[in-house]
Amino acid sequence: TGAISSLQRQMEIQESELRRIRSEKELLQKQLREREAQLQAVSDKFYSLTEEQRQEEIMVMMQEENHNLQQAVTEQESQLAEQNKLITELQETISQLRAEVVSTRLQLLKHKQAQKEIQSQAEELQHKELQTRVALEHISSKFERYRNKIIQATFSVEGIQDPQAELTDDEVLEAMQKIINERLELQQKLKSKGSK
């Protein structure tokens, strides 16, 4: 947004400069018209003189005026050429600034779209995280119930003493393995005596 504002300010400055140059160009053209009017006024004045005076005066004044006019026209043409060149450059700069404004706005729009997509992905990840937490709590609860059942089954066997402190998973497995081994031993003994 700052880049767009900066480009727009530059464009306004360039357009202001363009208006100033055009105003100067109009002023030069006006001065040229005034010179032509002065020449016409001098020409009208000569009609009131005698023919001989008129011819002499005309020759002198025409030479002087022609020289002045030629010099003024040359200067004004040079100034107009410079101003036309500057106008062209300013128009190109304005066009470039407008293109940059459009480009910057497009980039800003893309950034906003990307930001929305990232926001959407973040919300989706948060939702998945919540679902995972719920599933983990459910699994943890099931595992704890299963573990308690194992402990209860293990230590409800006759001859097994109740645990004095909270058991680790290894201790529970060890107690279960002991019961399994004892039962296998008993089965072997019963089989050797022919009992079903």
UniProtKB/TrEMBL annotation:
Coiled coil: 4-131
TM regions (residue ranges): none
Keywords linked to the UniProt accession: Coiled coil
Superkingdom: Eukaryota
Protein's name according to its UniProt entry: CCD27 protein
Species, as recorded: Thryothorus ludovicianus
